[in-house]
Amino acid sequence: MRPTICCMLLALCLLTGCAPLLERTYSVSEPHSSKFWESEAAGTLRAENHQDIVNDLLLLIGQHRETATLRLYNFESDLSVADTLERAAAEIQQETPMGAYAVEYITSSSQAQRGYYEAAVRISYRRSLEQIQSVVNATSPEALYSLLAAALADGQTELAVRMGYWGEAGLTRLEESMALLREEQGLTETPAWVVNFYPNAEEPGLVEFLLDPPELPEAETPENSENPEDGQEPGGGKEPGGEKEPGGKKEPEGEKEPEGEKEPGGEKEPGGEKEPEGEKEPGGEKEPGGEKEPEGEKEPGDRPMPSDTPESVGRSKI
User: Fold this and answer.
1) In this predicted model, what pLDDT tens digit does every residue of 171-185 receive, in sequence order?
2) What is the pLDDT of residues 66-123, one digit of tens each?
3) Are 165 and 139 in contact (CB under 8 A)?
4) Sequence ranges of the chain with CATH classification 3.30.110.140
5) Residue 28: how many CA atoms within 13 Å on its side-chain side?
């Protein structure tokens, strides 16, 4: 009897001690955006409030999606849907770093369905998918020096950094890092880098560096600003006034009155034009009193040609 009891006690001890060895734990992982997708295969997202719509739009921007369909639940009217979509789009472009950096505009339209609203969203981008995917992260402005140095070493012409923390001295740290790096790289004589802050310069969430900025148009053609009258005609800035129309008549220069009044005899013709010397009466004699032949006979020659006015206007605008 005793051996039997001993065997039972030994078996009970063994089973109790092995219990921890038989314990197993497990975990289940799901995509972070699973709650936003109504049907990911069909490109349909869901939202129940303003913040859900903002999250859906940021998700689309991160994937550089141009079109998508949103199913909106718990909205009472068409007006509330339109107002919420408009406020969400404005928040994306004005208050989020990635939206301000990458998005040109967002349009949307909605239609009531049974139990929900279906909204069609279209996003236009001013940054490519490669530019969005090239954005790097930095915890603070102190990391910008090493990121800029690595970008220069790789021959990059631009760098976009998403900032985790900026602080009051962020701009000062940035300027110091840029000045030190440009001095070390011997770039002090090169054009200054262009720095853009998104969504604003006070609290930027994303900083963009253009390391090879394009030259300004004024720097390419400085003579345009020095000689604003060069647009008339080459050669002194004057119109080719020496050219006369067939028949010896001079082109009216801007229809100036003073020049038309310098006619022998002190009388000006009604047309305000000086009688060309090449069109004088045979023999070169004028009628008594300095009066010329009745204009009725010279009307075709005295009036400006149909092309006179357009030519003078066109030249003044060149």
Assistant:
1) 999 999 999 999 999
2) 999 999 999 999 999 999 999 999 999 999 999 999 999 999 999 999 999 999 999 9
3) yes
4) 134-210
5) 1
CATH class as words, domain 134-210: alpha beta
Please name which of 303, 255, 306 lies closest in space to residue 279, comparing C-alpha atoms: 303
Rg (CA), the chain: 41
Please name the amino acid found at residue 29: S
Report the distance separating Cα 144 and Cα 103, nearest Å. 24
Whole-angstrom Cα distance, residue 49 to residue 24?
40
Residues of each domain in the chain carrying CATH 3.30.1370.230: 37-127
pTM of the model: 0.58
SS3 assignment, position 16: helix
| Dihedral angle, C-alpha 254, 259, 265, 268, nearest 10 ° | 30
CB-CB neighbours of 127 under 10 Å: 18
How does 146-181 read in b/e, with b if 16+ C-beta sit within 10 Å?
ebbeebbeeeeebbbbbbeebeeebbebbeebbeeb
| Cα–Cα distance, 244 to 177 (Å, whole number) | 67
Task: Decide if 119 contacts 106 (C-beta within 8 A).
Answer: no
Residue pair 197/204 in contact (Cβ under 8 Å)? The answer is yes
CA distance 113 to 239: 70
- Distance between CA atoms of 317 and 215, rounded to whole angstroms? 27
3-state helix, strand, coil in the chain (%, to 5): 40, 20, 40
Strand-pairing partners, residue 105, are 124
Contact status, residue 123 vs residue 61, Cβ threshold 8 Å:
yes
Class of 37-127 in CATH: alpha beta
Residue 288 is classified by DSSP as G
Strands (E), 179-236: 194-198, 206-210
- Minimal CA–CA distance to 252: which of 261, 263, 268, 241? 241
